[in-house]
Amino acid sequence: TGCTCLNGGTCVTYYLFSGIGRCICPDGYTGIHCELDTDSMCYTENGEDYRGMATEDKCLPWNLPSLIRRGHYHAYSENALQLGLGKHSYCRNPNGRNRPWCYTKRGSAIQETPCNIEKCEHLNKILLFAGPTCGQRSFSKTFKIVGGRQAEVESQPWIAGIFQTIRGMDHFLCGGSLIDPCWVLTAAHCFHTPPINKSVYKVFLGKSILNVTDDKEQVFMVDEIISHPDFTDDTGGNENDIALIRIRTTSGQCAVESKYVRTVCLPERNLYLKENTHCEIAGYGKQDFYDIFYAQRLMSATVNLISQRKCKYEYYDNIRVTDNMVCAGDPTWQIDACK
């Protein structure tokens, strides 16, 4: 009954058989549980989190009865879904070897055979040489389940955390996106209270957990804040709610690209996306409107674009929603991002 959908998949049930459900997968994923990553070309670290569809000619399917009889890893074990095992022969690493592998047969013996898959670090060097790296990421180490899931910063390396120093303590204020090594895009309402004292703000990049500091992150001073001149927070509206922050380290440097810090791509002018296009949201926001505290861990989820007509006239109105805005939400209204 019901279904477990991974990677932003949506569980739908049949009208006449309400106890039977299936997953509708976002672009880039397939499988009964949306557990297969169709775009994955490489693996990170030792490949334990690899969920791509690479295989070898001699790879045996994980649901082969002889694997079960001999006590090997197989598709019917209790934690098979978490290990990426299923009714397929794709390369996996369920036992922590140094790279993804699959079972192959040699005579009557079954053995573990390493797969010929590129490591992402090697592939990224090729991509870095080939051109811009905006929007490129490592795969998340966490298993992503619809409903707002925890994410490692490798899967959202452009996410910025903006902090404000109050009485000597750094408090999380807003999230943002790194669009250039020196610039973070964020919301103007984060700085609506004048006067703006730049020295009380810090920007963190490469941060998975708000209250944990490690060597992945980079810390910056705020050099300049440019809010949209027509933004006003008086009416509670979101028109022109956009701002740019110029960042630099104490030594004057901008962000340095790494596995945990990268820029996100900006859309082309006049880009048009169809209704129901799958989009990703991420941040450290409150998980419920009435929550007092922000989520300590970076969270991400998938939402669908909603047409301007439907957004204006079915959900809101044509005063609060303008053509300068993008309207999006979860089809089940269980996950979202808001001010």
Task: Offer a concise description of the structure.
This protein is mainly beta and 339 residues long. It has helices at residues 65-69, 80-83, 120-130, 308-315; strands spanning 10-13, 21-24, 29-30, 36-37, 42-43, 101-106, 109-114, 118-119, 149-150, 159-166, 169-180, 183-186, 201-205, 218-227, 243-248, 278-283, 299-305, 328-329. InterPro entries: EGF (IPR000742), Kringle (IPR000001), Kringle-like (IPR013806), Kringle_CS (IPR018056), Kringle_sf (IPR038178), Peptidase_S1_PA (IPR009003), Peptidase_S1_PA_chymotrypsin (IPR043504), Peptidase_S1A (IPR001314).
CATH fold descriptor of one domain: Thrombin, subunit H
Question: How would a textbook summarize the main sheet?
Answer: 6 strands, antiparallel, barrel
Widest β-sheet, arrangement of strands: 10-11-12-15-14-13
CATH homolog superfamily of one domain: Trypsin-like serine proteases
What is the radius of gyration computed over CA atoms, rounded to a whole number of angstroms?
Answer: 23 Å
Q: Percent of residues in helical segments?
A: under 10%
Shape designation: globular
pLDDT averaged over residues: 81
Question: Strand portion, in percent?
Answer: 25-35%
Structural class: mainly beta
- Unreliable stretches, pLDDT < 50, 5 or more residues? 126-131, 140-147
SS field, number of helical segments: 4
For the terminal residues, how far apart are their CA atoms? 35 Å
Number of strands: 18
Give the second-level CATH assignment, the architecture of one domain. Answer: Beta Barrel
